[in-house]
Amino acid sequence: MFSYRHAFHAGNHADVLKHTVLVAVLQHLIQKDAALTVLDTHAGAGLYRLDGDYAHASGEAAEGFLRLAQASALAPALQEYVDLVRSFNASAASTKIYPGSPFIAQRLLRAHDRLKLFELHPTDHRLLAGNVAQLEAGRQVAILLEDGFEGLKKFLPPPARRALVLCDPSYEIKSDYGRVVDMVDDALRRFATGTYAVWYPIIARQEAHDLPRRLKQLATKAGKGWLHATLTVKSSKITPLSEKRPGLPASGMFLINPPYTLHGALKEALPQMQQLLAQDRHAAHSLEAAG
Ligand code: SAM
């Protein structure tokens, strides 16, 4: 079974990038009345305690969300994200609860929208089910103890033909990279007008390097627009003097059929993310789009 638990990483720089994009995309998609389906292929536990043992052990939120929470004059997309996370906490002064993608999405959805959550880890599935039960969301939210790459197929196309697919695997197994590409390829054939958002780690591994290039090829072949945003917080080189656990240096979000508003929002937000989340002088960002 997998050993990855998102609780160690909740609120880190990768979550900041991913969840800022998620909030911005959803805020655009809910402008239209027609029902929206959000499919989260790798949901995690849904809610995380930043004062819990897992988060304390890693301290990743301290170098991620918590830096933003202390900053002022944020770009609008960052402010919306920070405000949404704060809304899960009783006091604006201290963030104890960090919402994962299922709770961020659910908070923004309307009563007639639908949320499908896939989570394969039995413990995280149980935690997710318990957290969602508190919402009394009824038929709005479905939780599936299934493989998200495969399970997605049966929901495409969605009834009102409007959907956002968030694909955020842990990439613990090398084959996840290829499965992401196969899943998006298949999904575009079933439902070409959906919005697809894929998070991936930027690490020294050929599959990770190839992933955005392969997704770009898929989008181009299907004649669809795409957007690619990356955030680097530190050098990927491990020196003898660096920390015991080097941690993830950078990550990216690749979107197919992104809302037209996303590029402008990220153009403002990414330089600020870089500045606020930098861990050394190698911090950087990139933003490219087509279509
Ligand atoms: N999307 C979540 C968020 O932003 O809050 C975090 C998800 S975490 C990076 C990846 C999750 O996918 C883990 O909880 C892991 O147990 C789960 N997982 C791994 N392989 C899976 C699969 N094939 N199908 C569904 N879930 C899977």
TrEMBL record:
Alphabetically ordered keywords of this record: Methyltransferase, RNA-binding, rRNA processing, S-adenosyl-L-methionine, Transferase
GO cellular component: cytosol
GO molecular function (one): 23S rRNA (adenine(2030)-N(6))-methyltransferase activity
Catalysed conversion reaction: adenosine(2030) in 23S rRNA + S-adenosyl-L-methionine = N(6)-methyladenosine(2030) in 23S rRNA + S-adenosyl-L-homocysteine + H(+)
Keyword check for Transferase: yes
Residues annotated as binding S-adenosyl-L-methionine: H19, H42, S101, E119, D147, G148, D168
Swiss-Prot/TrEMBL GO biological process terms: rRNA base methylation
InterPro entries associated with the record: RlmJ, SAM-dependent_MTases_sf
Residues carrying the site annotation Interaction with substrate rRNA: Y4
SUPFAM superfamilies attached to this UniProt entry: S-adenosyl-L-methionine-dependent methyltransferases
Active site per the UniProt annotation: D168
Signal peptide bounds: none
E.C. designation(s): 2.1.1.266
Protein family (similarity comment): Belongs to the RlmJ family.
Subunit-level organization: Monomer.
Family matches, as PANTHER family: RIBOSOMAL RNA LARGE SUBUNIT METHYLTRANSFERASE J
Role, per record: Specifically methylates the adenine in position 2030 of 23S rRNA.
Protein name in UniProt: Ribosomal RNA large subunit methyltransferase J
UniProt organism field: Paenacidovorax caeni
